[in-house]
Amino acid sequence: MRIQCHKEEILSGIQQIQNVVSTRTTLPILSNVLIEADGENITLTTTDLEVGMQCKFPAKVSRPGTTTIPAKRFSSIIRELPKDELDLEVSDNHVASIKSGSSFFRIMGLAKDEFPKFPDFKGAASFQIEQPILRDMLRKTAYCVSHDETRYVLNGVYMVAKDNKIICVATDGRRLALSEKNVELPKDFSKEVIIPSKAVNELNRILEDDGTVKILIAENQIAFELNNCVLVSRLIDGHFPNYKQVIPEKVLQKVSIDKNDLEKAVKRAALLTTEKSNSVKFNFKKGKLVLDVNTPDLGESREELDIEFDGDEVSVAFNPQFVQDVLKNLNEDNVIIELIDELNPGVLRGEMDFLCVIMPMRMS
Amino acid sequence: MKRFIIHVDMDAFFAAVEQRDRPELRGKPVVVGAPPDRRGVISAASYEARKFGIRSAMPSRTAFQKCPHAVFLPVNFKRYEEVSSQIREIFLKNTPFVQPISLDEAFLDLTHKAVDLEQAIHIAQRIKEDIYKKTKLTCSVGVAPNKFLAKIASDLQKPNGFLVVREEFKQAFLRPLPIRRIWGVGPVTEKFLKGKGFKTIRDLQECSKQELVHRIGSLAQSLYYLAHGEDDSPVQSNRQPKSMSRENTFERDVRDLEVLQGVLADLAVEVAKSLKEEDLKGKTITLKLRYENFETHTRQRTGKQYTDQAKVIQSVGQELLEQLWESKRAIRLIGLGVSHFATPEEEEPLQLQMELFPSPF
User: Fold this and answer.
1) The pTM is what?
2) Structure ipTM over 0.95, yes or no
3) Domain B171-227 in CATH 3.40.50.2300
């Protein structure tokens, strides 16, 4: 195999996919990137058996072929090459030689025989969605994904695609974020899947400001085709809990607050929380919101915000991180907070298509 | 007195937990420890991996050379601790006399629970079954009159073993075993003993004590008894203290309230400090007063909340002092203590994050 290509092109390719290589494994080939040169293209592939990524870009292929070489090493070599052009030649015994300007590298590769086959999605159900829309939905929900491996169905983002609507939901059992968008779906399309958080994170890295992404859903796998990349992932097998039951139907109080002001106030209030005493009390009073933190053996803080509130006074304690996560990812200038009482979940909303339900903390 | 000691040793514990939690690893050589490409040793190897000569404490690189296709996993200590505490719970249901050696190994003393060996065997079997029922993990159990024999017994039939050593057969049981089996005989001592012509425990048994002292010197004392199956080391259960207290005996008897209050404050600080060191919180606070004639009175109060705070202990102590002290009687000693400790389950955090879903969903 022999190719000539631009450093920037191969670098952006390898950087997009190098995160899914497996570092701790006894299958050394999973730390490698599969390089296939054919016709006028090079295809790079990586996988850790859960998530796989592939990207394709043009190159001058003077001798077609395939090989695998250590991905991280390959990536750092390419990054440091002195010239814009590079020449990659791989011998039949999988020794790769990289030449660029005055630099020369030779690294040992492995035959592709053991490299897992990239899954085929022929005949899979599919639809398309704008990349920025999907990115926004994932960004607004992914922070709620649970990392508790004993609750594996919560270790991903639940995605429902039906009735010309996409709903993304994630929860760690204490808070739940939901984002909903209207999307044109094929007739009678109806799928629900749980996408593992690793795939979501990688996807977020490669989604761009424009262009569409094609989503293909097979039996227990999902694929995202975008730009010159494909990301495939195993799906989490299991039933996502009924999220509708935890979204309060009737709320007693509702108030709209400037997002930036609230974000700054919560951030300051949280300075005096600790791991053991990790709550900020939100006291809604006539015309103002008072945030109180009182940590034994440490100290206390108080923040006051003028708000348009005329309802019955109510105080609820929340983990400030949960509130900050929502505000950080909200596009709107105002956030709407809905409350019942100090023991029932509070709801934070942006526009109609996003909400986050947060369970309060009980104070003894 | 005749004792019934059991030694419970989980089989390839860390690796077994991984294989239990990840069915795809079952039947495969699994190694838990440092990654094979780094410096470090392995902590556990599944029985499949042991077939390749992999042993715990072996450098990961060596293990990798012996079995490159083994699955190398990082140590998930938290998980093993959880399982270990489930197992410990089962032990404690049967006897408070538990001496944990590590996460996967413990001695239990069933002497007070069992009237005879048969009953001890029965309890030991039940513990083994309960562990399997609760954790789906197997262990090996040795039942014997002492810790030394129990430990050897659990090891001899691994995995999933159950071996009883009866008092009357203990010497015969030990006789064919290599000297390496004896507690404290490591590679160096083993080499030394072999140099002196001792290969099996039989060789030691056949020597009189004097002869042994003559041939191997200071080692003889302990080896002689162990070789004959004698070991009187107790099962040391590190049970939590029941109370934490401090007291102060005055050099001269005291009648002054202010002095007493000052001492009480100091005692409260010291008690609170000890509680924090032991990570304990109690809800019963006890005051003790001894008058000049050695007449001693105590009074206690149990609060709703567990505490380790000096301020709380002090203020309750003061109230108790006001109630208890027959004023103007001279006091020789004053003491302050906290008891009725919270078990980890009882110790509720000050602030509790509530759950969204009615669990289990």
Assistant:
1) 0.56
2) no
3) no
